[in-house]
């Protein structure tokens, strides 16, 4: 949640400003973060218990870009709802002691 907590406000500002450059830079940060945590490999099998968080990290940039480029093929109608559900579940998990 720390990563998304920092990125989501920046993304909202970029959407408001229609700043597509944010997304290019954020993609690099997201890939670095994902690599460090072993999202796409067997490097961190403990993450298998937290798919809601890994999916939220993986989807947040697409969801944001779809708010700017509404006609993109990557903009699946159910993606924003799935992202919001995963984000909420991840927040709930992170808030547990």
Give a structural overview:
By secondary structure, the chain is mainly alpha-helical. The protein has one domain. It is 70% helix and 0% strand. The chain is built from four helices and no strands. The protein has helices at residues 2-17, 21-37, 51-68, 79-95. Helix 1 packs antiparallel against helix 2 (21-37) and helix 3 (51-68) crosses helix 4.
Low-confidence stretches: none
Give the total of beta strands.
0
The SS-based structural class is: mainly alpha
- Helical residues, percent: over 70%
Shape assignment: globular
User: From the structure provided, what is the oligomeric state, counting identical versus distinct chains?
Assistant: single chain
Q: What's the order of the H and E elements?
A: HHHH
Please state the CA-atom Rg, rounded to the nearest Å. Answer: 14 Å
Terminal Cα span:
14 Å
Helix count? 4
Tally of discrete structural domains: 1
Beta-strand proportion = under 5%
């Amino acid at each position: 949640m720390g990563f998304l907590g920092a990125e989501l406000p920046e993304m909202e500002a970029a959407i408001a400003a229609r700043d597509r450059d944010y997304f290019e830079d954020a993609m690099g940060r997201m890939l670095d973060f994902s690599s460090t945590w072993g999202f796409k490999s067997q490097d961190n099998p403990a993450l298998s218990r937290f798919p809601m968080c890994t999916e939220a990290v993986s989807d947040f940039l697409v969801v944001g870009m779809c708010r700017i480029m509404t006609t993109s093929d990557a903009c699946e109608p159910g993606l924003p709802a799935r992202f919001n559900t995963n984000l909420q579940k991840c927040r709930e998990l992170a808030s547990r002691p």
